[in-house]
Amino acid sequence: MNEEILTIIKENSQSHKYENNTATNISELVHVSRNEVATILKTLVARHVLMKIEERPAYYIDKQVFENEYNMKIEQDVFKSLDLLLNQSRQSVRDFDKLIGHDGSLSDLINQCKATIAYPPDGLPMMLYGPTGTGKSFIAKLAYEYAKNQNLLEAQGKFIAVNCSEYANNPELLTANLFGYVKGAFTGAEKDKAGLIELANGGVLFLDEVHNLKAECQEKLFQFMDQSIYHRVGDNETWYTSKVRLILATTENPEKVLLKTLQRRIPMTITVPSLQQRGMQEKVQLIYSMFKEEEERLHKKISISTKAYNILLSHEFPGNIGGLKSCVQSCCINSLFQENDEGDMLIQLKSLPNSILNDITEKSAVYTSASEYIKIDDLQNFIHKEKNIIRLNEELMKHYKECVQRIINEEQCIERCRDTVWKYFDSTLIYKEQEQQKDFYQNGIQHILDLVAGQYKFEVTNNDILSVCSYLNAYTKDYHSFRNWSVKNNEVVETFYSFMKQHYHREYSISEEIGKYLSSYLDMDVLPMAMITFIFYFQSLKKDDTYQKRAGVILAHGFSTASSIADAVNKFLGKYVFDAIDMPVNVDMNSVLQQLNSYMKKLGKTEELFLLVDMGSLEEIYKGLHLDNVNVGIINNISTKTALEIGNGILQNRAMEDIFKDVVAYSSTSYHIERNRQKEKVILCSCASGVGTAEKLKQIMEDSLPLQSEISVRVYDYNELVEKGMNSTLFDDYHVLCVIGTLNPNIEQMNFVPIEDLIINDCLGELDNYLEDSMTIEQLQDFKKNILKNFSLSNIMNSLTILNPNKLLEHVADAIDRLQIALDFNFSNNTCFGLYVHISCLIERQVMQKEIEIYPDMNIFEKEHALFISYIKESFKDVENFYRVTIPIAEIGYIYDYVRNDKNFIERGFCI
Ligand SMILES: Nc1ncnc2c1ncn2[C@@H]1O[C@H](COP(=O)(O)OP(=O)(O)OP(=O)(O)O)[C@@H](O)[C@H]1O
C-alpha cells in the first residue's frame, strides 16, 4: 500500500502537481479509507520521506524529488505554505547559483569570474562587457558574494558600486568621490573626505558604465591598479593605499573607449551574452522567476495567456533581461484588477506595454498547443528539461511495464507512449528559434535527417529538426544521468527495444540509421532508450507520396527472419521498401492475422500492399484481412531473392501482377491478388494542343470544382490516349468520368466534352449525365456555375497562353477567315472556337519551340492532303511572319482533324 501511495505522490511531485497529493485524492485512487491513508501519510512525514504542506486541504510532496530538483537538503518536514518552502529553497541558493543560466549559457562566464576574483593574492581587475540589461551589475554583486563566501575578502570588506554615467557632466566630482579630497581642493570642499576606493578597502569596487570615465580619471585609476596607491584630490604629496578588487563594466567596446594603458591593466574581459543568446530554456526560467517575484510581492497567483507568454518569449527586448523584467512588471500593473474565478491575476495580450504590442510581427508566431492560460507555477514544467528527459524515460517505461504486466494491452501501451513522446516534443517547440541561430550542431542534424529522409521516403519539416535538436541537446547535457538510468533499467529497456522493433520496423530502422550517423558525424552515443523515444516520434513523420502509394511488408516466423530479409533487401535496393513483422515460430493463424490487421491500420492511405509471407495458406490470410480500399497482393514461400525481385519491381513501378508472375515463374511461390481498392474518380484533361495546354485546363477545372467534391482532375497525353484507348493503364487506377479537351480522341465508351462546349454552347447539361453519380445536385449546380464563370474566352486565353491573348486572337481570327474563304465554306461556331484555342496554343508552342512533331501516318496525310496544307500555309502566312514561326505538317494534321469533324464540312461531303 505504502508503495502505491508513494508512487502517486512521487509522480505528482515530479510534474509539480503537488496539490493533487491530498489524503482524499489518494484514498480515492488506492480505494482505501481516507483515515487509513492519512495515518500512512503521517508516518511517511515522520520518516522524512514526505513533506507536508499545511494548506487547506493539506497536501504532500516527495522530499527526495524536491531536494533533487532544487539541489539542496531540507531539514524541515512541515511547511505552512508552498511559498514558504519555495522561499527557503530560493534563499539557500548561494552567489553565482542565483544567476539563471549558471548551469547553461553563463557557466563559462562564471568560471572566468571565479578564477579572476580569486586570483592570488588579491584577485585581478575584470571587465564585464555586454549590452545594457544583461546582468553585469548583478554578476558583479554575485562575484563579491562569491569572494565573501570563499573567505577571500576581509570581514568588513564591502561592495561599493559607482555608476560613472551619473557623473558624465561633472568628471571632476567623480574623481573626487572615487579618490577622496582634502579641504579646499575645490569650492565646497570644506573638510577632508575619504573616497570610495578607501571605503571599499578589503572588498570590491564596481565601476559601472566605465566608458564615461574621462582620460584623467582613467590615468589616476591605472596608477592605483598598478601599485594600490593614490593621491586624494587637492593633495599630490600624500600617498594613500587601499586593497580593492576592481570590477568594471561597459556597454561599449572597451578597445574603443578606454585608454590603451588602462586596457592593458585589465587582464580579463568577460563578455556577457544578450537575452537573445540565452536560449529558450533560460528565457522560460527568467520569465518564471520574474512572475514568481511579482506573485510574492502582490500575494496573488498569476496566470498568463499563451499568446502574451509567447510574445514575452519571442520578443527581442533591446533592454535585455532588464527590459524583460520591466515588461513583466508593467504587465502586472496593467492587470492588477484582472482576475479569473479562482482569483488568479490574469495577464493577457492587452496587459503588454504598447511598445511591444506595436512591434508584434509575424516572427512572434509561436507553436504551442497549450491551453489558453498557463499558471505561472506550471511554467516549471518547461524548466529543467534535462531532468524532464529522465522523467520522459520513466513515463515510457511505466506504460511498457503495465503492458508487460497485462494491465494495458499493446495497442494502449503504444498509444500512451506515443502521446507522452509527442507531448514532450511539443513542449520543446514552444518557441521557434530563429533561422540565423542555426548552429553547426543544428546543421549537422538537418543534414542527417535529410539523408535518412531520402532513403526512407519521408518528409522532414523545420519543426522536426528543431524537435530532434532540442531532444538531443537535453540528452547530451544530461548524458550521465541518462546513462546511469539506462544501466539501472538495462534489462527492461532491452525487451522494450525489441518490442518496438517488432511493431515498428520502419521507424526502428530510421532511428538506427540516424543513431549511426549521429555517432559518426557528431560523435554522439545514442542509447537504446533514446532510440525508443525516436521510434515513437518518427511515427508522426509524413511519408512521401511514393511510399504512400505502394507498401511492402515481409511477414515470417522466427526471431528475426522477416527483419533480416527486409534489412538485407532494403540495403541492397538503397531504399526502404519493406517493413518486417517477425512472428514467433509456433504462433497460430489468428495471431498472425491480428498483427497484420493492426499493421494495415497503421499503414494509412496506401493503394497497394505487397504482402510477402514465408508460409501458410494464402486463402486463409486474405479472408482474414480487413481490407479497406486497398489492393493486396499476397505471395508465399518468400526468400531474400524473391523479396529482392519484388522490391525491384515496386521501385520500377511495374504492375503488381506482372511482378508476381515473374517471381512465380522461377520459384516455388504462389500468389493471390485481392483487389479492393475503389478507383479514384477523375475528370481527364487531354489536349491535342499538348500537355502544357491540358495542365492549364486542369487548373481552371480544379478552380471550378466544388470544395468537398471527391472528384479530382488529371492530365493525360493526348497521343497516348488516342493510341491506347481503354487499354491504357490509367484506367486500372482511375474511374474516368469524362475527358475534356480541345479535340475529341474518339474513344468508344469514353465521354468527351470539347472545351468549346464549356464556353460557347450551353452544353453543360451533358455534364449532368457524366457526373450525377459522383456529385450531389447542389455540388453539380455549383460546378456548372463556376464553369460558366471561369470558362469565358478571355479567361481561357489568358490562362492558356503567355502571348498577348488579344493580339493572338486577332491574328488567328484573320487566318481562320482566310482559310474559310479558301475552303469556300464557313465553319460551325464550335469548330471556330476549337480552332481559336487550338491554333493559339499551337503558335505559342512554336514560339516556345515545343512543337508537336508527330501526327499519325504523317506521310500519307502529307500526300493525300497537299491542297489543304497549301491552304493553311497561305492563310497563316501573316501569322507565321508576325511570330516568326513555321507551322509544321504534324500541326497542320491536327488542324485538319478539327476541320474534318466540322458538321458543315461533313454535310457537304468535302474531301481535300
Ligand atoms: N542571469 C540572470 N538571472 C536572473 N536575473 C538576472 C540575470 N541577469 C540579469 N538579471 C536581472 O536583470 C536585471 C538587469 O540586470 P543588470 O542591471 O545587472 O544589467 P546590466 O547589464 O548591469 O545593465 P546596465 O548595463 O543597463 O547597467 C536585474 O534586475 C537583474 O537582477
From TrEMBL:
PTS EIIA type-4 domain: residues covered: 549-673
Return the PROSITE patterns for the record: PRD_2, PTS_EIIA_TYPE_4, SIGMA54_INTERACT_4
GO BP terms, alphabetized: phosphoenolpyruvate-dependent sugar phosphotransferase system; regulation of DNA-templated transcription
| Domain Sigma-54 factor interaction per the UniProt entry, residue ranges | 99-333
**InterPro entries attached to this UniProt entry:** AAA+_ATPase (IPR003593), P-loop_NTPase (IPR027417), PRD (IPR011608), PRD_sf (IPR036634), PTS_EIIA_man-typ (IPR004701), PTS_EIIA_man-typ_sf (IPR036662), Sigma_54_int (IPR002078)
**Lineage top rank: taxon:** Bacteria
Query: Can the keyword Nucleotide-binding be found in this entry's annotation?
Result: yes
Keywords for this entry? ATP-binding, Nucleotide-binding, Transferase
This protein is called: Sigma 54-interacting transcriptional regulator
